[in-house]
Task: inverse folding
């Protein structure tokens, strides 16, 4: 059997009020890749993930995951939104947030039970947060909140993850935990697309990169595309369409 | 207590519970103003309902009003999604527009009929005992019990059936969408429940009290608990208590029942706002005072850390030196050192301040947090630049392994 790429994106274009935010994105991510998505502010990194997951409408383009439409493989795909995208004052516990990752598979009208709680506890344990399971989420530090989000993705046991800035503003312990976890997942053959902001750690943490600035400047294995020239082109904004 | 008094309180308690149930989700979705908007925007629905039935007492008028409530929500979202105005402005634009359509329709086509919201949604609790439901000559009790009871049952059924989905969609709509939990459909389901509950409750207790019951008890309960089920049950309980307390206050002072109940809701929120154990104003004030000393202690740690192992350590890291260095009063220096010592960050030996192990790692954490934000903002465009930087700016060379390992 020939392995389908975990993710294929063809000609993806997203626009807000006639202003292109993503322009003609082509991307192929083979299974088992740990890929960073980097680019300057406003490059469309978050938009890319949201458009791929159908959370915002694309003007054009096609997305396939494992050769199929997202709707057909929803169970195999996990999503870690930006930590800042939710209200952490919400009255709920860390364990409860993690269990939300199981709601999709649980199906309508079924309540999470002891089995789900146990799986959520195991996921919290993997990110070193078991001791905080019953803690209200606003009482957690930023790094701890990020790990809860990661645990919530872990319980989904997905084969393809989209993570939006999981290392933004976190402490050293969290950064280490997250990176170790990403590597473990990769060893199990999991594919990950991770929006990342720190060019200095790309080579240490990832084995592939997508350089994005409205257009895809380059994407592929680090040794092939993570060159001084490509980085300059991404961060100087030379590929932004309005300057052409 | 007479039978009439019991009836009034029973109707009020059921209505309060019916409103607080969906109200909890409205508060968490930051949509408290929506009930206010709905209360005005339903007028055209009532008018159209009247044109269709030509009967002011037809239940169809309430159905039409509830449908208009959902239309209100829909229009607000259309206006908001243009991204030209924010949600609050969108609400402020939509409901006067709908309300004015209702007014124009009445003045043009129904000038001879006395038709306004009050006619349909008369809502006066004092009359609740006299407005009775009778079937085949049998008195089944106050009609308000059945009206409010059915929307309470509807709300309980909807929220009971979709509890986990509603919770997820309220906390993290993007995840809910990614999991296939159709947050958009849930949203309109919830807003339909809100709209029907609001219209039915207007009919029973009047519009001002309804808005108070939707917003006040959930807002008070939100400050008192960390758990969603407790918040929901608590807001229903607070609403019910306010209804009963409000009745007896009105009875004692001989004032409007609805006004008195709404006043009790306000008082309940004020008490919660001031004295809630974690989130109340008093608790926050006390915590801030505590944090003041913690912050001062952290400054002290960084100072000690900076001079630790250097030649001027003997001068800088003395307890007597702190007043001079930080410009602290003797009392403040004493308090700060106490704060640092109770946290096991420093030890004091013969006037010399020493960092403990945990004090040293706290100092590093503070330093890193301070530089972390700046590093994220800095434009980084060159690999040469990247490789030149040591991973932990500001730390001593022997600490370098800390952030990279």
Result:
């Amino acid at each position: 059997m020939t392995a389908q790429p975990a993710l294929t994106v063809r000609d993806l274009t997203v626009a807000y009020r006639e202003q292109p935010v993503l322009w003609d994105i082509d991307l192929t991510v083979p299974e088992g890749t740990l890929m960073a998505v980097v680019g300057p502010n406003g490059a469309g990194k978050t938009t890319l993930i949201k458009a791929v997951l159908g959370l915002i409408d694309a003007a054009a383009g096609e997305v396939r995951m494992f050769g199929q439409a997202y709707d057909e493989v929803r169970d195999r795909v996990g999503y870690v939104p930006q930590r800042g995208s939710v209200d952490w004052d919400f009255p709920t516990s860390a364990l409860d947030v993690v269990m939300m990752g199981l709601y999709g598979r649980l199906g309508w009208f079924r309540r999470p039970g002891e089995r789900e709680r146990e799986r959520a506890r195991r996921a919290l344990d993997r990110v070193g947060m078991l001791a905080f399971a019953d803690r209200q989420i606003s009482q957690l530090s930023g790094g701890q909140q990020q790990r809860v989000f990661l645990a919530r993705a872990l319980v989904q046991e997905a084969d393809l993850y989209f993570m939006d800035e999981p290392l933004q503003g976190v402490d050293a312990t969290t950064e280490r935990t997250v990176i170790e976890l990403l590597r473990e997942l990769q060893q199990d053959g999991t594919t990950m697309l991770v929006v990342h902001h720190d060019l200095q750690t790309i080579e240490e943490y990832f084995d592939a990169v997508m350089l994005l600035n409205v257009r895809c400047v380059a994407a592929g294995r680090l040794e092939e595309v993570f060159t001084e020239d490509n980085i300059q082109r991404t961060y100087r904004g030379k590929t932004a369409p309005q300057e052409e | 207590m007479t039978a009439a008094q019991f009836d009034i309180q029973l109707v009020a308690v059921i209505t309060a519970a019916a409103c607080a149930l969906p109200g909890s989700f409205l508060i968490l979705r930051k949509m408290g103003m929506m009930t206010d908007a709905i209360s005005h925007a339903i007028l055209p629905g009532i008018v159209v309902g009247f044109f269709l039935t030509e009967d002011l007492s037809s239940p169809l008028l309430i159905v039409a009003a509830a449908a208009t409530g959902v239309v209100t929500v829909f229009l607000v979202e259309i206006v908001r999604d243009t991204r030209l105005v924010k949600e609050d402005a969108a609400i402020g634009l939509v409901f006067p527009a709908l309300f004015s359509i209702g007014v124009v329709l009445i003045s043009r086509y129904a000038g001879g009929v006395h038709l306004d919201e009050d006619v349909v949604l008369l809502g006066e609790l004092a009359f609740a005992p006299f407005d009775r439901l009778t079937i085949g000559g049998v008195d089944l009790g106050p009609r308000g019990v059945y009206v409010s009871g059915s929307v309470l049952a509807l709300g309980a059924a909807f929220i009971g059936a979709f509890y986990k989905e509603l919770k997820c969609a309220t906390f993290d709509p993007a995840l809910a969408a990614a999991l296939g939990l159709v947050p958009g459909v849930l949203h309109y389901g919830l807003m339909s429940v809100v709209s029907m509950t609001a219209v039915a409750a207007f009919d029973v207790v009047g519009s001002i009290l309804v808005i108070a019951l939707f917003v006040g008890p959930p807002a008070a309960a939100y400050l008192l608990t960390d758990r969603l089920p407790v918040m929901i049950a608590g807001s229903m309980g607070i609403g019910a208590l306010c209804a009963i307390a409000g009745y007896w206050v009105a009875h004692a002072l001989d004032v409007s029942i609805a006004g008195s109940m709404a006043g009790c809701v306000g008082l309940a929120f004020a008490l919660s706002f001031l004295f809630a154990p974690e989130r109340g104003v008093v608790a926050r004030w006390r915590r801030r005072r505590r944090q003041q000393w913690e912050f001062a202690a952290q400054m002290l740690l960084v100072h000690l850390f900076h001079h630790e192992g250097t030649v001027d350590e003997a001068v800088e890291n003395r307890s007597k030196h702190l007043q001079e260095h930080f410009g602290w009063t003797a009392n403040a220096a004493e308090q700060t050192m106490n704060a640092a010592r109770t946290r096991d960050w420093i030890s004091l030996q013969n006037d010399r301040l020493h960092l403990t192990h945990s004090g040293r790692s706290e100092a590093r954490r503070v330093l890193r947090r301070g530089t972390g934000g700046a590093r994220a903002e800095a434009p980084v465009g060159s690999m040469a630049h990247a490789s030149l930087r040591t991973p932990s700016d500001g730390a001593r060379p022997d600490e370098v392994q800390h952030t990279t390992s």
User: Anything to note?
Assistant: The domain at 3-206 of chain B is CATH 1.10.3470.10 (ABC transporter involved in vitamin B12 uptake, BtuC).
